[in-house]
Amino acid sequence: MLANKADLSTVANVPDKVDVQNLKTENQQLRDQVTTLSGQLLKVQSDVAAINAKLATLPAK
Q1: Which domain of life is it from (predicted)?
Q2: Whole-angstrom Cα distance, residue 14 to residue 21?
Q3: 20-41 burial, b if ≥16 CB within 10 A, otherwise e?
Q4: Rounded distance, CA 8 to CA 17, Å?
Q5: What is the pLDDT of residues 19-44, one digit of tens each?
Q6: Is this model's pTM higher than 0.70 or not?
């Protein structure tokens, strides 16, 4: 169903043109950040597992 003019009045300011190259660049930067953060998360998970393993060897109080 097509929107009528009243429906269109609720749409936020949508640009007439989209800078596709800018979006591609931004997308790649975000992908790179996700890759970096994923690597950091794996390192933290590994560190936590190592700490937990050491804690398990300590005598109980």
Answers
A1: Bacteria
A2: 18
A3: eeeeeeeeeeeeeeeeeeeeee
A4: 18
A5: 999 999 999 999 999 999 999 999 99
A6: no
